[in-house]
Write a structure and sequence with these properties.
- It is a single chain.
- The protein is 33% helix and 23% strand.
- By secondary structure, it is an alpha/beta fold.
- The longest helix has 20 residues, at 300-319.
- The protein is elongated and about 90 Å long.
């Protein structure tokens, strides 16, 4: 039996007001005649306590009521079964936390996250990398390959259990225990002097295609492209050719346009990103493996080139079914796919491609950023699941409200007041945005290592 908590005093087709006889709080779920609603405001007056609720959906179908409730209709506290059914919370999958002020576990579908992409947006220090860490732990448990583009090396802490006393005591409430994923987490880096435990990361430079060369030289003029095309054509006459071979053929060109091209190619060779002893993509993307691309200490320009090349290779391998479906996590996404007018990045075009076409091939994208307004809007709009933590910057709030379905200006006020560790989650298959207390991490949080 559900607990009766009030009766309707005023009603419209999408909202109603009820007088409460029992304790009622903002964000509580209530049930009236097969319809679920959420309390958005509670007022105390001389005539008693009144709650204002917004209708979410019906137990019978997805249609909203077409006529208001009768005045005097009884209002009940909604139970777990009804809340989960109408909102569309899964019973299993990626366990991210508890529905705020309840013991209802919130699971997200790994299939939806890979096929429809995910973004986590919040201001710095609001717990976005922490929430991403929770999702990564769940993906590892499901044996789904993950590749993390990690500019600060903060995800290497997935190897160590979270023994923080405060967190351990909270873990009981969420039904989890400290855990290490040492056997699953592999770290790759182009700068191993800074990252001692990392495996050296090199990209294959044998027989680069003409498109690969164009990707490396995004600002090449039509004349330079012509020289590059001729050099590449000559190089193809060899069975195996490397970048240095292409450089030699460029030097043989009669055109003066080569003089600007030569230093660019020499600079790329000097970066030591390429090698015949390259890192195989099927070592980076493997069942049950979480591969961290640790870019700590790598200059930004080289980071962008490396991320662009690596994601291109992963995408090609997946299109040809040489690797399993994979989730790619991009931390500080505003660096790698900036909004127009916020600077250029070599890696932008492949990230845009994965955002729009990845779902067809099983390449999922998880975008993490503290500056949503600086991330390419096309990429954010392709993300179906949004996890929003506390954000206060007006431009960022505008971007979030504009790109997240189901959020309105009322939600914008809520986003500014979210406590640390609480998120708004919106997107398929949820019928409405929900407030979730993110579960503690089983592993140590990278921010605590610094």
């Amino acid at each position: 039996m559900m607990e009766e908590i009030g009766e309707i005093k005023e009603s419209a087709t999408a909202t109603f007001t009820f007088k409460a006889f029992k304790d009622i709080r903002k964000l509580d779920y209530v049930f009236v005649e097969n319809v679920l609603a959420q309390v958005w405001e509670v007022k105390q007056t001389v005539n008693g306590i009144f709650a204002y609720a917004t209708i979410i959906g019906s137990i019978n179908d997805k249609f909203m009521p077409r006529t208001p409730f009768k005045i005097g209709s009884k209002v009940y506290r909604a139970n777990e079964k009804i809340i989960k059914k109408i909102i569309g919370i899964e019973n299993e999958g990626i366990y991210i936390g508890l529905l705020k002020d309840t013991n209802i576990k919130v699971h997200l579908s790994p299939k939806v996250l890979i096929q429809k992409h995910l973004c986590i947006l919040a201001k710095s220090g609001s717990g976005k990398s922490y929430a991403m860490g929770v999702i990564i732990e769940e993906f590892i448990k499901k044996n789904i390959p993950i590749v993390i583009i990690d500019p600060h090396g903060e995800y290497t802490s997935l190897r160590r259990p979270n023994l923080d006393k405060q967190d351990v005591s909270i873990m009981k409430k969420f039904g989890i225990k400290p855990r290490s994923y040492l056997k699953n987490v592999y770290e790759f880096s182009p700068v191993c002097s800074r990252n001692k435990e990392a495996i050296p990361l090199y990209i294959d430079e044998t027989n680069l295609s003409f498109q690969d060369l164009l990707n490396l030289l995004p600002n090449a003029t039509p004349l330079q492209k012509g020289i590059l095309y001729e050099a590449h054509k000559k190089a193809q006459e060899k069975k195996i050719y490397l970048l240095k071979d292409i450089l030699e053929y460029i030097k043989e060109s009669k055109s003066n346009a080569k003089w600007n091209l030569i230093p660019q190619i020499e600079q790329i060779i000097s970066m030591k990103l390429f090698s015949v002893n390259y890192t195989p993509i099927n070592e980076i993307v493997k069942k049950g493996r979480c591969s961290i691309i640790n870019l700590k200490g790598t200059p930004p320009y080289i980071q962008e080139i490396l991320v662009g090349l690596l994601l291109n290779k992963i995408f090609e391998h997946r299109k040809n079914e040489k690797i399993l479906p994979v989730m790619i996590v991009i931390e500080e996404a505003h660096r790698y796919c900036p909004e127009k007018g916020q600077g250029k990045s070599f890696s932008s075009s492949i990230i845009r491609t994965i955002a729009s076409e990845g779902r067809k091939f099983g390449v999922g994208l998880a975008i993490v950023s503290q500056r949503p307004a600086r991330v390419d809007k096309n990429v954010i709009s392709q993300c179906n699941t949004h996890i929003i933590l506390k954000t206060t910057n007006p431009n960022d709030l505008k971007t979030i409200v504009a790109s997240v379905e189901g959020l309105n200006s009322k939600a914008s006020d809520e986003i500014q007041m979210l406590p640390i560790g609480t998120a708004i989650i919106a997107g398929l298959p949820l019928a409405t945005p929900i407030f979730v207390e993110i579960r503690p991490r089983e592993t140590l949080h990278g921010g605590k290592l610094d």
